[in-house]
Amino acid sequence: MLAFVNGPTIGRVTAETTHPSTEPAAAERPRKRQARGERRIAQLLDAAGHVFAESGYAATTTNAIAARAGVSPGSLYQYFPNKDAIAAALAEFYADSLDELLAPFAALDPAAVSLEAALGASLGPIVRFHRDNPACLALFIGGNAPGHVMDLQAPLMARTHARIEALLALYAPELPAARLETGAAVTLAAYKGVLPLLVEAEEERVPALTQELGDLLLGYFDRLLRP
């Protein structure tokens, strides 16, 4: 998903000069470097998400992100040249994560699982994801970030829209494609509209609010999917 900064290239060693016992260690070094790079990127993105959510895009600096991650600014610049690149990486991470959350629901058996049950099973994890990653709302959904940052939401919204449309098609395969597309768009817009309330609510209110959102969507689906 993300490009890593590779370590030094290991030079070619001839068969005559290579000792068999050194080959596994030499092969292991690039893998260890890549694993460290992946952990460091995850650490930086987690820190960036918190700083963006707390300070907003304009006030966030790469120095603040590095400090939150517990690394030097120079270490951050090994992976990201500026905060725009960090925001782009976060957008990709959020899109991948939401896609993974929704993927299992595209293969449900409508005869065995009701739409109400499918919706109930999917809403909880999606709400939890947004509460755990409030920068997703602050940067890409809430509309408070600069236009060039908000533009990064397009792949995130497109992939989520496609998953919703696929889920609806399972339960109403006879509906025209245009109606399914509209239904997915309205569903996504409704969720985005309620999302700030879900993200900002006290923890004890989240289950009730999630249930209310589910009831709202089910009422809409009942009308949308009617033959």
Describe this protein's structure.
The chain is mainly alpha-helical. It folds into two domains: about 1-80, Orthogonal Bundle (Arc Repressor Mutant, subunit A); about 85-225, Orthogonal Bundle (Tetracycline Repressor, domain 2). The chain contains ten helices and no strands. The protein has helices at about 25-55, 60-70, 75, 85-100, 115-130, 135-140, 145-150, 155-170, 175-200, 205-225. Helix 1 packs across helix 2 (about 60-70), helix 1 (about 25-55) packs across helix 6 (about 135-140) and helix 8 crosses helix 9. The longest helix is centred in the first third of the chain and has 33 residues, at about 25-55.
Radius of gyration: 22 Å
Shape label:
elongated
**Total domains, how many?**
2
CATH class of the largest domain: Mainly Alpha
Structural class: mainly alpha
Q: Kindly identify the CATH topology of the largest domain.
A: Tetracycline Repressor, domain 2
Mean pLDDT: 84
Please give the largest β-sheet. none
- Write down the secondary-structure element order: HHHHHHHHHH
How many beta-strand runs? Answer: 0
| Named CATH architecture of the largest domain | Orthogonal Bundle
Low-confidence stretches: 1-21
Give the distance, in angstroms, between the N- and C-terminal Cα atoms. 41 Å
Portion of residues in beta strands equals under 5%
Enumerate how many helices there are, as a single number.
10
What percent of the residues sit in helical stretches (DSSP H or I)? Answer: 55-70%
